[in-house]
Design brief:
Enzyme class: transferase
CATH superfamily of the largest domain: DHBP synthase
Largest sheet: 9 strands, mixed
Distance between the termini: 33 Å
CATH architecture of the largest domain: Alpha-Beta Complex
Number of strands: 15
Main location: cytoplasm
CATH class of the largest domain: Alpha Beta
Keywords: ATP-binding, Cytoplasm, Nucleotide-binding, Nucleotidyltransferase, Transferase, tRNA processing
GO molecular function, one term: tRNA binding
Order of helices and strands: EHEEHEHEHEHEHEEEHEEHEEHEH
Number of helices: 10
Low-confidence stretches: 203-211
Strand content: 15-25%
Function: Required for the formation of a threonylcarbamoyl group on adenosine at position 37 (t(6)A37) in tRNAs that read codons beginning with adenine.
Shape: globular
Number of domains: 2
CATH topology of the largest domain: DHBP synthase
Bound molecules: adenosine monophosphate, magnesium ion
């Protein structure tokens, strides 16, 4: 059920976390499905509810943090916020959370409700996005309800997510920092603080970055990335095609529906609207969604990453 994220309801949710239950809660990236990170049985429930494979590790959300030099520098600059750090783990974190890896993913979210929930629970909260595995990430409480239904007792509602794409994941566990996933914090911002950073292209479903699966974040409707939607339409005459457009398109008439990510083409606004726009297309009974590439700068990288995975069969 959806509950407004009032002081009282955050308290109720924190009691559930303490009892080993899962709750859905807002963060500035997307809505999360959380459980006590120290409690294996509670974390198993996350996998069951999401139908998530056990090889896909969770991010642990904390309200406070101490660690090594590089991690501290990044934490000082970007936490609380949409950045996840992969660090060597210690014994307190059960294997279920990390999929048996020697490393753990840690994030300090910026959303006041998420922070309050973690503080009141008194434990770090392991939480992936609150959606079914592989499906669109939820940027509103309604999206969580639609996908997870009554499997979660409390869905804390605090309106739409500010960023709308997941956190940026930086691996600090092997000497050189490596961006494993583009997200709400841009590569440009990171490089200003720690200099040049490499990014893993993760073009394969490999173990190095578990969960960075090629097919992910997918709408039910087939999605195709094309250089020109107008020319692509020649191949899809008579089909019900939707256009996902970064800004106001010149030509709308070939398409059954058009979703504009940002009237002005602003990448930040576009990221915030991405999953919801795909979700809207999904109820329109379309044959296909077409989308043209967005510039791969700033949040454009995170957007293109999600679109590429969404377009996989
Ligand atoms: P989600 O919160 O749904 O975006 O899922 C968390 C993602 O974090 C996983 O799918 C992994 O890609 C990533 N992740 C979590 N822990 C690790 C780790 N120890 N090493 C590398 N990636 C990780
Ligand atoms: Mg997810």
């Amino acid at each position: 059920m959806i509950f407004k994220a009032t002081e009282e309801n955050i308290f109720k949710a924190s009691e559930l976390i303490k009892q080993g239950e899962c709750v859905a809660f807002p963060t500035e990236t997307v809505y999360g499905l959380g459980a006590n990170a120290f409690n294996s049985l509670a974390c198993v429930k996350i996998f069951e509810i999401k139908q998530r494979p056990f090889f896909d590790p969770l991010i642990v959300h904390v309200a406070e943090f101490e660690n090594n030099e590089m991690a501290r520098k990044l934490a000082e600059n970007f936490w609380p916020g949409p950045m996840t750090l992969i660090l060597k783990k210690n014994q307190n974190i059960p294997d279920i959370v990390t999929a048996g890896l020697e490393t753990v993913a840690v994030r300090m979210p910026d959303h006041p409700v998420a922070r309050e929930l973690i503080k009141k629970s008194g434990v770090p909260i392991a939480a992936p996005s609150a959606n079914l595995f592989g499906s669109l990430s939820p940027t509103k409480a309604e999206h969580v309800l639609k996908q997870l239904g009554d499997k979660v007792k409390i869905i804390l509602d605090a309106g739409p997510s500010r960023f709308g794409v997941e956190s940026t994941i930086i691996d600090l566990s092997r000497g050189k920092p490596l961006i494993l996933r583009f997200g709400g914090l841009t590569a440009e911002e990171i490089e200003k603080v720690i200099g040049r950073v490499e990014f893993s292209q993760n073009q394969q479903n490999n173990i190095v970055a578990p969960g960075q699966l090629l097919k992910h974040y997918s709408p039910h409707t087939k999605l195709l990335i094309v250089d020109s939607a107008k020319s692509a339409m020649r191949d899809f005459k008579g089909k019900r095609v939707g256009l996902l457009s970064l800004k106001k398109p010149k030509n709308k008439k070939d398409f059954v529906a058009v979703q504009i990510l940002s009237e002005t083409g602003d990448l930040k606004e576009a990221a915030a609207n991405l999953f919801e726009s795909l979700d809207r297309f999904d109820v329109m009974n379309l044959d296909l969604i077409l989308v043209e590439p967005v510039p791969e700068i700033g949040l454009g990288r995170a957007i293109m990453d999600r679109l590429r995975r969404a377009s996989r069969n």
